[in-house]
Design goal:
The complex is a heterodimer of chains A (361) and B (244).
Chain A lengths: L3 H12 L5 E2 L5 E3 L1 H12 L4 E3 L5 E4 L4 H10 L7 E13 L2 E13 L4 H18 L6 E6 H10 L4 H8 L5 H12 L13 H14 L10 H16 L4 H12 L1 E3 H15 L4 H17 L4 E5 L12 E6 L5 E7 L3 H4 L8 E7 H9 L1
Parallel strand pairs in A: 1-5, 7-9
Antiparallel strand pairs in A: 2-4, 3-4, 5-6, 6-12, 7-10, 8-9, 10-11, 11-12
Helix pairs in contact in A: 1-4, 4-12, 8-9, 11-12
Chain B lengths: L7 E6 L2 H12 L5 E2 L8 E4 L5 E6 L1 H10 L4 E5 H7 L7 E6 L5 E8 L8 H15 L3 E5 L2 H10 L5 E5 L7 H4 L4 E6 L3 H5 L2 E12 L1 E6 L6 H14 L11
Parallel strand pairs in B: 1-4, 1-5, 8-9, 8-10
Antiparallel strand pairs in B: 2-3, 3-4, 5-12, 6-12, 7-10, 7-11
Helix pairs in contact in B: 2-3
Classes of the chains: A alpha+beta (361), B alpha/beta (244).
Chain lengths: 361, 244
């Protein structure tokens, strides 16, 4: 029987293994980048502190962002890097401060993204094994797969971005699907105004409201979206396409069954979806091979609520449903932080306290 | 004061119309609040109710004190309870509305945003705002918690809050924010600033409430004193203290 400190020592050995660099991240970090990257939604969980001149700092709420920032600042773009971390993070939940121990892996700029993701899954698998967890519940999601599906299903571009932006937010998605399924019946109105007329009307309204024409949304932007909305209302998505999308989002089953179902949906709708499915299938198979006892589920609607995730995402949960490990591919993160283009990135975070709880049960 | 065997602390807004109307509401129930030192004193009493200590606080502070259990009973706006802490409403008991201080907390955008009628429109605008303008959509408000909760409900994550202590309605014209979340009673201030409330932009309807703290230390004696005071106030069914 291993003790808690032996398990922790094994975890330290894992994050300090020879092929990776254990990152050194300060406890106190500027809060701005977190708000910039993740917005208010994540910001409400930060434990903030303010200097006398009003600059906000936070207790380290995660390792991924500072590691990625350091990677950029050190000019490592293009250099494949593997960072690990282990240490406390701080957040607030329902106004109560909480300290967690977190460990994880970040693979940045790796040439072979598929290989990198399999390494991440292997790392998570090893970490769980230290805590004698050999049969976790694994939930996979496909951000890239959903984007590919929207494109293959021939959904108008304007709608596509609206739908994409709600991915990972079940309530907002449900409302949108509802709106698509029951398009507003517009009474026959006058022919739409020309773009120039609308721009003029908006410009007048902005000037009389004392708004700057360039500081925020511009008259052109407002007019374009207004006309686009009219056009979208006039040409709603076909009911069978809405149904197809809904059926896709409803897929949540053991990985093999789920991919069958998605392939069938595509076939019925008359397009070929084997290529996009191929990668996801491979990763699911690799994961299953790593943990033969794990229950691997593919949930088509599953995604973290952050728009820098790109490919495959996953979470592993224990016996009481708490997330033990989560991660995936987030090629857009380094771009958000200032890189010129998306850079391959994948990683995972492990909730050490929960792992320990699971082990000592 | 909670360590005393008995006695209640009542928090009353310390100034303005809210103070005036609160004292009027109490005196109409034959509970006359005395403030012996005038507007500069922060402690008072109720005639013939020696067990009650009255404290005068700014309304937002009353909300915080009720949530933390620093005072037992208080009068403040329900919006302030919801704003003071993410789970503020779990720590208090709304006894009843007092029929004044009515106001709505709303989401309002510039009237010229003719393409934005509903929160779903705002979600669309927020989602590509940063790629268009190189910064987040900015919302000016003093209701940070209420805004975050309401926006989260509509799946809007891509924005930043600009905290504003006063005259929030001028933020869009001043260029410090793109839209606002603010309190309005008649809507005339919003209209004057050419701002329009979204069709589903009502975050909450607020009014001055008589509120009891759940987190205060409620001994049987103090519960009995609370019941007695509330029965004089009227309009409250007996047995409130059993919920504490």
């Amino acid at each position: 029987m291993k003790t808690a400190s032996e398990r922790y020592a094994a975890l330290v050995r894992l994050v300090e293994s020879r092929t990776v660099t254990r990152a050194n991240v300060p406890l106190l970090l500027p809060a701005g980048p977190y708000f910039d990257l993740a917005g208010e939604e994540f910001g409400r969980n930060l434990l903030l502190t303010t200097t006398n001149n009003g600059v906000e700092y936070c207790l380290r709420p995660d390792f991924t962002l500072p590691i990625a920032q350091q990677y950029l600042e050190d000019g490592l773009i293009g250099a494949p890097s593997a960072f690990t971390y282990l240490g406390p993070i701080f957040r607030q939940e329902s106004s109560t401060p909480v300290e967690f121990e977190q460990a994880g892996l970040e693979l940045l700029g790796q040439p072979d993204a598929d290989n990198a993701l399999d390494q991440v899954l292997t790392f998570a698998r090893w970490a769980l094994a230290i805590y004698d967890i050999t049969a976790p519940n694994v939930r996979l999601g496909g951000v890239g797969l959903f984007e590919a599906f929207l494109e293959a299903a021939d959904i108008p571009t304007a709608w596509r971005s609206r739908i994409r932006h709600r991915f990972g937010h079940p309530e907002a998605m449900a409302r949108l699907m509802d709106r698509l399924a029951n398009p507003e019946q517009k009474a026959e109105g006058p022919a739409p105004d020309s773009r120039d007329t609308v721009i003029e009307i908006v410009t007048d309204a902005m000037l009389s409201g004392g708004l700057s024409l360039i500081g925020s949304r511009t008259p052109e932007e407002i007019a374009d979206r207004y006309l686009e909305k009219q056009a979208l209302d006039a040409a709603p998505i076909a009911p069978e396409t809405v149904m197809l999308l809904q059926n896709y989002l409803d897929v949540a089953d053991s990985a093999t069954m789920a991919f069958e179902r998605i392939a069938d949906l595509a076939k019925e709708a008359g397009f070929d979806f084997d290529e996009p499915l191929y990668q996801v299938r491979n990763h699911a198979a690799a994961l299953q091979a790593l943990s033969p006892n794990a229950d691997v589920v593919f949930d088509a609607s599953f995604s973290p609520r952050l728009d820098y995730y790109t490919g495959i995402v996953f979470e592993m949960t224990g016996s009481d449903g708490e997330v033990l490990a989560s991660g995936g591919e987030y090629d857009r993160m380094l771009e958000r932080l200032g890189a010129d283009e998306p850079i391959k990135a994948s990683g995972c975070a492990l909730w050490v306290d929960r792992l320990e709880r699971e082990a000592s049960q | 004061m909670n360590t005393l065997p008995g006695g209640l602390t009542l928090a009353v807004p310390s100034k303005g119309r809210l103070e005036e109307l609160t004292r009027k509401a109490f005196s109409s129930s034959r509970l006359t609040i005395a403030r012996p030192g005038g507007a500069r004193s922060y402690i008072g009493s109720i005639k013939n109710q020696p067990q009650v200590t009255v404290r005068f606080y700014p309304a937002a502070e009353i909300a915080r004190e009720l949530i933390l259990g620093g005072v037992d009973i208080g009068v403040t706006g329900s919006d302030l309870i919801h704003e003071a802490s993410e789970n503020g409403e779990e720590n208090v008991l709304f006894v009843r509305g007092l029929g004044f201080g009515e106001a709505n907390v709303v989401v309002a955008v510039p009237d010229s945003w003719i393409d934005v009628q509903q929160m779903t429109d705002l979600a669309d605008v927020a989602s590509d705002f940063r790629s268009r303008h190189g910064r987040w959509l900015r919302v000016a408000t003093k209701y940070v918690n209420l805004t975050r909760r309401h926006f989260a409900k509509y799946g809007i994550a891509e924005y930043r809050i600009v905290e504003s202590a006063g005259s929030t309605e001028s933020a869009p014209a001043a260029g410090s924010a793109d839209l606002i979340v603010d309190i309005t009673s008649t809507g005339s201030t919003l209209a004057a600033n050419q701002l329009r409330v979204l069709e589903d932009g009502l975050i909450m309807q607020s009014e001055a409430n008589l509120i009891v703290s759940r987190t205060a230390d409620w001994t049987p004696l103090r519960k009995a004193q609370l019941e007695a005071l509330l029965s004089i106030m009227g309009g409250v069914p007996p047995g409130i203290s059993t919920l504490l």
